[in-house]
Amino acid sequence: GLGDVYKRQAHKGVSMEKKTLKIYFTSDTHGYVFPTDYRSAEECDIGLFKCVNQFHKDGNTLFIDGGDVLQGSPLCAFCHDSIGEASQFAEIMNCCGYDYVTLGNHDFNYGMEYLDSYLNALKARCVCQNAAYEDGTVRFPSRIHVLENGLRIGIVGIVTDYVNVWEKPEHLTGLKISNPLEAAKEALQELRGNVDITVCIYHGGFERDLETGRILSNTTENIAYQLCEALEFDILLTGHQHMSITGQTVSGTFIVQPPDRGKSAVSIEVTVSNGQTNFEGKILSAGGVCDPSLLKKFESMEQGAQGWLDVVVGHLDKPLLPSPPLIMAAEGSEMATFFNEVQLAASGAELSATSLANETWGLPQMVKRRDVLIAYPYTNTLTVLRVTGKALREAMERSAEYFDLDEDRQLCVSETFLKPKVEHYNYDYFSGVDYVVDVSRPHGKRITALLRKGKPVLDEDEFTICLNSYRASGTGGYPSYVGCPIVKEINTEISDLILGFFEKNPSLSIETKKNFQVIF
Fold this sequence. Notes:
Helices cover 24% and strands 29% of the residues. By secondary structure, it is α/β, with parallel strands linked by helices.
């Protein structure tokens, strides 16, 4: 559908003659290029090729991507593990006709060498103003693009500075990620007076509710609302949160955001006429027929991935079936129990905590590599921390905030885990302790029982706990882990640990274990 149509005064010096700019914008495709979700052989309306088949190029049109291209799909895992470099993703972007890209936080997951193999083969200009060399020189500075009709477009890119929290330092070798607001402000000042329209590509989302302005997050992970309030970009192209924003205005800036995995793209029509600039947004849902030449050109890449994914890695005595997130969180999940078992075996820790992806698909009895990569799609590695009973309880209290009670006093998911971004993955399942969560009690006082081997856990007790690297950094609202001594780091991706577990145990019997109770 059409988004808001927004009018503003044209920048000084813009001709009265009618001129247009068309932008096609994608973000967070996470390597979903082909029309498949990799769960079955059936074609579905998803993926980059099902979006760009609706793009139309001319001299007054820009194709722009907001990052997170290199990680997140089984195809990405295949390219990294079997090919070892990302130039094929660059070639895909080249064939699709992209003009500008910025970097997403997940584009750093495999390190700078892998990222550079993508950037060096990419014809599109990368703009990322807050990514600088060690000496402070901006590596991917802003650009001025002059359209055929003479309009001068100033283009700035920035990425959430939470890259510094999530990413291993060695994955950012030679690069510093600075404050995105300050970097964008500096770039905008340099562009002022030299361009007619300013565009900021921000791999980040909104910290406020777009309808009410209510603050939803106090971290700096997402600051798009602040960017709109503090700066005067004409257009802010956002991502990271996987929301669908067709087009509206915040403090005079026209904003959009597409969802993830190429489910849809956004087109923006900008018209400059009679001293005014109008903006109109439209969602382009993935669909139709893919360009046969694109499918043919990258056929060997896709066939190689499918063959690699179809390798059988193990067998279970029964399938691990998913349920809706709330039911799994309240009643337990065999998938989460299995992941914790893998983590405990790999780490030797006393306790383990794991989370599930927003979309959980379980594992069949005959497990293929694709099933593991779909079930655990992240590049997280494993960290073992030494925690006190007090720190453990605080972490568990954070997970307990996942629950709320509706008007009928029935259990539901707390709004804070649903807005502005759905974050079921920030609820953790704990192994090695027995506990009770009482949702009728206030936040911070919901863990009413916490036992280790039948004994109450005291504040001064100490344990080792294994966590994914994302959670061990405190991200997701778990500050009690910050500063805890690191016992060891296991620099193997957890999906590979799961594959290795099957290699050692090719036929597994899954025990149904429930070590917690949720009451309300």
